[in-house]
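User: tokens in, sequence out, please.
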């Protein structure tokens, strides 16, 4: 696998993991008991911490990519494992 292919696959894992991680740990202003800013939506997060999200996403996607790459090198699961019609 070339470096550019590995980087592209890692970035795909990173984006997918980002969408999985984003909804967790976010609290609204009502849940935290703080004042809302005028015009703020009721569902808007009051404690969004992008640095923490990026760190968690980076670590989780690195683990997922590591498993993917280990499978790529060792061939644990291949397309032949999913051939249900033969």
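Assistant: Sequence out:
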């Amino acid at each position: 696998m070339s470096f550019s292919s590995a980087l592209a696959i890692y970035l795909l894992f990173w984006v997918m993991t980002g969408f999985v991680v984003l909804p967790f740990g976010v609290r609204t202003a009502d849940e935290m008991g703080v004042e809302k800013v005028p015009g703020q939506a009721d569902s808007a997060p009051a404690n969004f911490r992008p640095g923490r999200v990026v760190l968690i996403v980076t670590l989780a996607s690195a683990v997922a990519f590591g498993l993917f790459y280990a499978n790529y090198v060792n061939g644990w699961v291949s397309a032949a494992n999913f051939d249900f019609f033969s």
